[in-house]
Structures are given as C-alpha cells and as structure tokens.
Specification:
Elements lengths: L37 H22 L13 E9 L17 E4 L9 E9 L5 H11 L10 H4 L4 E4 L20 E8 L3 H10 L9 E3 L2 E8 L1 H10 L3 E6 L5 H4 L3 H14 E2 L7 E6 L18 E3 L15 H11 L2 H6 L4 E2 L3 E6 L12 H15 L5 E5 L14 H11 L7 E5 L14 H5 L12 E7 L13 E2 L5 E2 L19 E4 L3 E3 L6 E2 L5 E4 L8 E4 L1 H19 L5 H10 L5 H8 L4 H11 L6 H5 L5 E10 L2 E4 L2 E4 L3 E4 L4 H7 L3 E9 L21 E6 L6 H16 L23 E9 H5 L3 E7 L2 H4 L10 E10 L7 H9 L7
Parallel strand pairs: 9-12, 10-13, 10-14, 11-13, 14-15, 15-16, 16-19
Antiparallel strand pairs: 1-3, 1-4, 2-3, 5-7, 5-8, 6-7, 16-18, 17-20, 20-21, 22-23, 24-32, 25-26, 27-31, 28-30, 28-32, 29-31
C-alpha cells in the first residue's frame, strides 16, 4: 500500500477545452523491407517466439502472490537491422496493450539494434499470429501480410534486466554488485511500483522526476533485485545507471560549464529581503561566482581580521566557496539538471576565520568564533541565521571532554537567555591515508574533533549513498563504503566516555572513496558532490565531500526549516532536524545486529540518529502526525538556603483514542524528541557531581498504558531522585523503548516506542522534568532561578492503516494546525 503524501495536494483545473473522439493513427513504416526467404524467415521467428513464450511462462514463476501488482505480462526483446531502425515504432500496439519501452544504445560495429516491448499476458500470441499471417497470407497487392514489420525483424527473445538498460553498455553493473539505478516508470504506474519495491525491500529514493509518459525514481539493488521487480511489476519501462555524478559537469569544457551556470542563473529566484541566512565561518568566499553572487551581496561578507580581505584563497583550495555552493544548492548537480525555477529561500553570509596564508592557533579558535559571530549580527541584527562551521582541530582531544572552543560554541548557542543561536558543526575527517581494510574500525576509533564536543550545536557526520563509478579510468576500482553507510572519512564518538553527548547527532551525504585493492583509497569525482569552484574564470564547478560537505547540507536543511517556520526557536530547529532523521537500511542492519545496549550505543555514536529529511522535518501525513511544543520550565527553586529541583511539566497528548482503539493490535510507532540548550561551565575539574559541565539537564518520560497519572508522577519523581544519585536514564529504562537508557546523553534526547495501537491510546501524557546541573550545585553563582526552554516533538506513525490519524488529532486539538 502506498504511503499517504506529506503535502496535501490541491486540485487544479486548467483550461476549458472540450474533448472530441479521437482514433490513434496506424503506424506506417516507409521504405522497402529487406528481402527475405519468406518461409525460412517465418519459421525462424516462429521458433524464437515459441521459445520466448515458454521462457515467459517459466519467468512467471518468479511472480509472488502478495507482492505483485499490475497487469501480468512480459518483456520481449527484438533484434532489428541497424539500417531498419524505423521499424521499432511498428512493434507497439495500443489496443493489444503492447508498449515499446526501451531501445538500448547501439553497440558500435554491431549490425543489429534491439528494442524491448512490454507484452501483457492476454496478448502473448500477438506477434506469433502476425508471423503466421506473414507466412500464409497476402495483401491485395500480393505482398506477404505484415511484411513491413515482420521482414524487418531479425530475432526475438524474452527480455531480462539488461534488455531494458539504455545507458552505454559499458556502464552496466557487474552481477551481484549493488548500484543505484534510474528506473523509468510507465505512465500512471509509479504508485504500484513503489508498492512492489517496498514489499521486496528494495530501497527507493523518496523523490521522483515527472516527464510526459514517464516518472523516474532511483532504486538500489543488484541485477537480481531488478529482475524480481520485473517479475512482479508491469511498471518498468527502462533502466539506466544513476549518474548524479560531478564528472558529468567536470568533463565539460570551460565554455560549456559557463553555459550551464548561466542557464541556472536565469532560473534563480532571489531570496526575500527578510529571508534567513546561512552564515559560513570558513575561508571566505568568491562572490564573483555567478551562482554565488545572487545570494551573497558584498555587504554580507566579513573577516575576523579586516586586513585578510573577505575573498577565498588558494591556500585553502577555495574551501569556503565550495561550502557556499553546497549550503545554497545542496548537491549542485540536481539544481543544474532540473527544469524550471530554483528558489533560494535564504541568503548566504560569510565570515573569514582562516588567514589567507596560514592557520590560526587552535587555542584561539573560541575567541575567533565569538568575534566572527557578532560581525554579521551587527550588520543585520534582526536576521534569522544558521551558523555553519566545518573548520575543526585535532589538538587537545580527550574522549569527549569539552574544549575551550566547544564551550565557546555552547555559550554562543545558549546566549545567556537573550539571543540563542543555531550552530551546525562538522564532526571532522580522518587524516592521512585511508585504507579500505581499516573501514569502519578506524572511524570508530578516531574521535570527533574540536569543537564537536559542543552540547548545543547540531554536530554532523557524513554517510554516503554514492557507489556508482562511471569513469572508465576507474572501472576496476570499488567504492569503500556500502550504500547508506558511514562515509570513509567521517569521525565518530565511539571512544568517548559515557557521560558525553552522542556525536554525530545526524549524518548527511559526504561522498565516498574508491580503491583499487592495492593502494590507499582516494576521492573519485563520481563519488563526490558537485559544487562551485572558487576561480570561476578557470571553471565553474568542483567536487566536494567529507564532513565539510555534510555540514553544509545540514545548514541547508536547517535554513530551509527556518525559512518555512521563521518563529521557531533554534532548539526546535535542531530538534526537528534530529526528529526527522532515520537510519538507512545499512545502518539499521548494524543496529539490528547489536546484541545489547552497549553495542547499540556504539552504533548510535557512529551514526547518530541517522539521515534527516526536510519533508519529514516540515510536514505530517495522514498516517504520520507530528506535534511540536515549545515551552519553558523553572528547573530549580530555593528553600531556605538549599537549592532543590522544582517540578516537571506534564503535557497531555491529544491522542485520537477511538481511532487507535479501532486499530487494536495493529503496530504503531511513537517517537519523542526533546531538545534544549545548556549553559556551559567548562572548567576542567574532574567533572564530579559538583563540577558539572551543563547548567541543567532535562528528561522526558511517557505515561504507560496501565499507569494512572498519579502513578506516572510518582515514577518520574523516583527517576529524578535516581538520576541525582547517578543512575543515568532511570526514566527511560524498559517498556519497549528502542534506545532506552542510551538516549539520555547531552542536550537532545530522541527515542522510538513500538507497540499496539490500543496500548498507545493509553499513553496520553509526557512529562518533562529537570535533573541536576551546576545551576543547582553552585548556588553562589546565582543561576538557580533561571528558566529553561525546550522543544518537545512527538510523532505517531501508523503505516498501512486506513485511518487518518492526522485529522483525528487535529480535531481533538480543536484548533487549526497550519500547513508547513
């Protein structure tokens, strides 16, 4: 069953023309057909068709009950002389339901071309009958019947996956090699195709490109996986290798690159004056690039030291300009290749924090960052912005302990109760040679770099879906990381001490490495993102990857959230990014293989909460409803001379009780994310109870099915007391939560509960409660009376149900929920 869309679609009526009956004209093949020995040619084709029909019946055994969708049918591949290419159109017959779907590229030097048609089972004898008529019957002029078509056919066979492949033959993936395929879908069959792919556990990208008569989606699998799709679906028209590769554009000459860039510039819709911004703290940027200048006015560029200038430099290989391209467009390949306008919903700002010809002293980066942040804020004090920092340092790492730099970021994000800020920070990359044999063990052993120890920033690691190598020069090379897994350069928090936050929080595409089986792996253009080159007078485009690209993509997503919801708190934007994240199938397989909570924590410290999705961050669906709450509590109070924990906030959940009870034992999913900022106290004093880093911590707990509200309150009070005594995760243990006690690290907590809909109907309250921090432990600092903001994000997902959960909750709230 297809999932309901996340964007409730309008109904459009365009034009007022009156329809008239119309008969499709018959296909006419011009010119004389090849001379044939009639009986011999008919016998050859009849035998080939009989074999194809027998093979089709055998192939039918692969059609699985409960999986297959659409009309039963098969694909036939015809061979036609290259000189008779016009005959391919004559293979199609609409009344018989026969559709010409693919004409693969001709192989140089071959005498014949091939054409593949879809033949419904009801028309399986269509071509055999035409051959018999060709053999036995004449037209009024005395010519063999159907000669124009049949005489132009050399051979026919049952078509398989390769028969539908229309790219250059050399790009066809090797057997048993997993690749991303472009699947071109027959008109009107996208929904059924997605259904079959889902039942076969074949991953698809969420988006589709719409063309007349075809939809194009990306599917990941082997040749065998695609064969199963063909056996169970009538939807596939043709196959190509997914080629969202930078090499497509990098192989162009400079003049052609300019043409593509100018075409995109003509389609750009500039940001609104009040739009938010992504502020890059990096090596500056070259705003002379035509794809950068529309979003980066000269007054948006700054430098930590005014003598450095604001432009990019060759010393840093144009890193800031590369970051700009990804932050603005994502993978630039998509913006260049799509048709229609490209809206820029936010501005760029750049602050040059790297000297033109050397590095900074890492010990000063905290101060540099603080000054860098204030410059654009002074220039545009009312603008909402996301700060993005991909500059990291390996100096002074200590298994997750805060550095002065990370603490400065935490202080900037917390803002002292006045100006909260959102930071997106890269987890950092492995240095030196990267060996395929060391993956992913080395990634787990090399810790995220400073300032990724920050509690409040959104820390981004890199994963990759890029596994297709197109360049024939690297035809014998292999991708290091499997699709959907950690990018080979990305660092993790696998060796951090248990009290420190999960890092990364999320992962974005960072490209892949390739290796030849002997030497260290290296970047290959096909496995990177496409972005803007800092010297556009030489060329327009460049490749980019690793956690720098991933961080830029993270800033891109957060800025899009702010553009859509300008009033959201930074804590909420970060929470939505994490709440929208899901583990890819490759990541989930590692979690599924985790035998205990310690192993599950190791996977969480490798992948965070997975790969975010903008649609999930902004929109609900009928079967996937999300509530977003922004609230404040006072964590502590003073009684006599003692600082004590004050109270919790109890949130009643407007669950559609009747609808959930109607679903009964059906499986549903509840996801909760709690996001807040802490005020840091980074002095290195052993991190004892009294010398805590965080000002306070918050936790969430969900009322259980057979628990009264009073029992729920008592359980939370006991959990808070247990945490005071050092029992981390006391409120999260047991009760079917996927992460449970492992989720309560840092200042964002996210977890999933799965169970029956009837059980969820009783889970109708969430408590948010404080546990201790230095605000409480150090009364002399006079912080105990400060308020703590938080965002609470709650989703119910009921996949496969026919009940509109979203509308039921909306009605229960009795207020309009604005559409994203």
């Amino acid at each position: 069953m297809a999932r309901p869309p996340r964007n409730k679609s309008h109904l459009f009526i365009d034009g007022g023309g009156q329809g008239e009956p119309y008969t499709s004209p018959r296909t006419v093949i011009s010119g004389l057909p090849p001379a044939r020995t009639r009986a011999q040619h008919a016998a050859k084709l009849a035998q080939s068709l009989a074999t194809a029909v027998l093979d089709a019946q055998a192939f039918k055994a692969g059609r699985q009950a409960g999986v297959a969708e659409g009309e039963e049918g098969f694909y036939f591949q015809f061979e036609i002389p290259a000189t008779e290419r016009g005959a391919v159109d004559g293979l199609e017959n609409k009344p018989a339901g026969i559709e010409l779907v693919a004409v693969p590229q001709a192989v140089e030097g071959e005498a014949n071309i091939t054409a593949t048609v879809f033949v419904p089972e009801r028309s399986l004898e269509f071509y055999s009958n035409k051959v018999i008529a060709y053999r036995d019957e004449e037209t009024k002029t005395g010519r063999p019947k159907n000669e124009n078509l049949i005489a132009r056919l050399e051979d026919v066979r049952l078509a398989m996956v390769r028969s539908l492949f229309t790219d250059a033959p050399g790009l066809y993936p090797q057997p048993n090699v997993t690749a991303w395929w472009e699947v071109w879908i027959r008109d009107g069959k996208l929904t059924s195709f997605r259904t079959v792919a889902g039942r076969l556990n074949i991953p698809l990208k969420d988006y589709a490109i719409r063309f007349p008569e075809r939809d194009v989606v990306l599917a990941r699998g082997t040749e065998g996986d695609l064969a199963r799709l063909l056996a169970n679906s009538d939807a596939v028209a043709e196959l190509r290798l997914a080629k969202d590769s930078p090499s497509t554009f990098l192989d162009m000459g400079a003049a052609e690159q300019v043409e593509w860039a100018e075409d995109l510039v003509d389609r750009l819709v500039a940001p609104d004056e009040l739009a938010p911004a992504v502020c890059l703290l990096d090596s500056g940027a070259n705003r002379q690039h035509p794809l950068i200048s529309p979003a980066l006015p000269a007054e948006h560029q700054y430098a930590y030291d005014d003598t450095w200038g604001v432009g990019d430099s060759s010393f840093w290989n144009g890193h800031g300009t590369s970051m700009s391209g990804v932050a603005l467009y994502g993978d630039l390949h998509q913006a260049l290749a799509q048709q229609g306008d490209v809206e820029l919903p936010y501005w760029l700002e750049t602050v040059k924090i790297l000297p033109p010809n050397a590095g900074n002293d890492p010990l000063l980066y905290g101060a540099i960052t603080e000054r860098a942040v204030t410059k654009p804020e002074e220039g545009a004090p009312h603008r909402k912005r996301v700060f993005c920092l991909a500059v990291t340092s390996e100096i002074g790492l200590a298994r997750g302990r805060p550095s002065s730099w990370s603490a400065a970021v935490d202080q900037l994000t917390y803002g002292g109760g006045a100006l909260q800020r959102l930071f997106v920070i890269a987890a950092g990359n492995l240095r030196g040679d990267i060996l395929a044999a060391d993956y992913p063990d080395r990634n787990d052993l090399e810790e995220a770099e400073s300032p990724a120890q920050s509690w409040n920033a959104l820390v981004v690691g890199a994963y990759t879906d890029k596994i297709n190598i197109i360049d024939p020069a690297f035809g014998h090379w292999s991708a290091v990381a499997p699709a959907g897994d950690l990018s080979p350069s990305s660092r993790t928090s696998g060796i951090w001490d248990r009290q420190w936050p999960i890092r990364p929080d999320v992962v974005f595409e960072g490209g892949n490495f390739a290796h030849d089986g002997v030497n260290p792996s290296s970047h290959v253009d096909d496995l990177q993102l496409l972005t803007t080159y800092y010297r556009p007078n030489i060329r327009m485009f460049d490749t980019f990857g690793d956690t720098s690209a991933a961080a830029a993509l993270g800033a891109n997503l957060c800025a899009n959230i702010i553009a859509a919801r300008p009033t959201l708190w930074p804590e909420t934007v970060r929470g939505l990014a994490i709440h929208s994240a899901e583990w890819t199938p490759a990541m989930q397989a590692h979690f599924d293989g985790a035998g205990n909570q310690a192993m599950k924590m190791a996977m969480l410290r490798r992948y965070g909460w997975g790969a975010p999705d903008l649609a999930r961050a902004l929109r609900s669906a009928a079967d996937d409803a999300t509530l977003v709450v922004e609230d404040v509590l006072l964590p502590f109070k003073k009684e006599n001379s003692t600082i004590k924990t004050r109270s919790m906030n109890l949130h009643a959940l407007p669950w559609p009780r009747d609808e959930l009870l109607e679903l009964g034992a059906a499986d549903v999913e509840l996801r909760v994310t709690l996001s807040y900022f802490v005020e840091p106290n980074p002095g290195e004093r052993g991190w004892t109870r009294r010398h805590r880093y965080s000002s306070h911590s918050l936790r969430f707990a969900v009322k259980r099915s057979l628990e009264s509200l009073q029992q729920f309150r008592l359980r939370i009070n006991r959990a808070a007391e247990a945490e005071e005594e050092g029992a981390v995760g006391a409120a999260a243990g047991g009760d079917g939560w996927y992460l449970g006690t492992t989720r309560d690290r840092g200042s964002v907590h996210s977890d999933v509960w799965r169970g029956s809909a009837a059980a969820l109907a009783e889970r109708d309250a969430i408590g948010v409660f404080p546990v201790s921090g230095w605000w409480k432990e150090k009364p002399g600092l006079q912080r105990w009376d400060r308020a703590a903001r938080y965002a609470l994000i709650v989703s119910i997902r009921a996949p496969g149900s026919n009940i509109d959960i979203y509308t039921a909750i909306e009605n229960k709230l009795q207020v309009e929920i604005p559409a994203a």
